[in-house]
């Protein structure tokens, strides 16, 4: 995806109307049709491991997906008016859509210097609540092949019947994700998401930027769970996902908004409005720090040589995918930093085939991660600066890193608010039901 902050600003014209045209559902596929000032966009999601989508509750939750997925096309024109037409909305659904437009697109608005406070949402039919047929002991876990979802699958109550949910692009499955999923030995329910080619190929008249993808995946997970009779979706979003990147125009800009505590509550309210309170979508890691997750993952050695968090392994285009850690991006550096307190330096080198923490070329990136840089926290799924600073302070005290002088120097500058030990206990609230816990 282009970084519009690194490109000359284009004199783009905002659209006037974005319209939700139709949601179609058959046994295996959701198809959403949208219109932006008369220009039509179509997205299709096809499920595998699902007998039929024509089950109670699926349509009602798919309507929420239809609403949030529309933002991938809304962003092309940043229209002043959003018309949901005859789509059932409800009070909680309207709250979710309004927040997704404002907070979920905050990074997009910041990078494109657009004020979305003028957006008007019109239309919407009443919601018809249904009671789905589900088993609360059966749980679906959205799985991305990184340390977070691996830890969730390993820590959920052993009595639960778990399955993984994996989303792939039409270009083909992601090899490291598939390899990591195979280690779990769990059933996999799949979805292939086919974005409209107009968005993928781009257009000089389109705005570009980040959309709340995790919220879309969360709702697709809920669709898959209901279609397979499962009573819950266990997300893997940590406490730090609520930490903002910066404050801009009285708006909190958070790259991870759709992983945040606020988004989780909005999604839960919108779901309960449609399918009741018994169906649970919650983040299993909500009250956990990135350091806690890394400590648990450090013991799961069977995953150490298959997992991947580097975004360059997950390009939509096959010719751009890397088959190893790049060792240069903020994600590589952050994961290296989180695991360093718990694994030997040699083990880390064996996993990453790089050593970002000792690379002088990464010093400025590390400075930003720990909150001492001139820039704000990177627009990546990384922890809050305080957690990174705590991890850095710990690593700088370890004798095997003593030769990396810039680590010690930077560690002497940071003043984190929490201690290493405090980050190994629970952090803040959680909606995780008791029967998910051991």
Brief write-up:
The protein is 33% helix and 17% strand. The chain has 438 residues and is of the alpha/beta class.
List its traits.
15 helices; 438 residues; disordered N terminus; 33% helix; 2 domains; globular; two-stranded antiparallel sheet; ten-stranded mixed beta sheet; 12 strands; alpha/beta
Explain what the structure shows.
Helix 6 (175-184) links the parallel strand 7 (161-168) and strand 8 (187-194). The protein is globular and about 65 Å long. The strands form two sheets. Strands 5-4-1-2-3-8-7-6-9-12 form a ten-stranded mixed sheet, sandwiched between helices. Helix 1 (58-69) runs antiparallel to helix 8 (213-227), helix 5 (147-155) crosses helix 10 (290-299) and helix 14 packs across helix 15. The protein contains 15 helices and twelve strands. The chain is an alpha/beta fold and 438 residues long.
The structural class is alpha/beta
SS elements, strand count: 12
Distance between the termini: 40 Å
Question: Which strand order spans the largest sheet, edge to edge or round the barrel?
Answer: 5-4-1-2-3-8-7-6-9-12
Major sheet description: 10 strands, mixed
Give the overall form. Answer: globular
Helix content: 25-40%
Q: What is the number of domains? A: 2
In DSSP terms, counting alpha (H) and pi (I) runs of 4 or more, how many helices? 15
Radius of gyration: 21 Å
Strand content: 15-25%
Unreliable stretches covering 5 or more consecutive residues: 1-9
Mean pLDDT: 94
Order of helices and strands: EEEHHEHHEEHEHEHHEEEHEHHHHHH
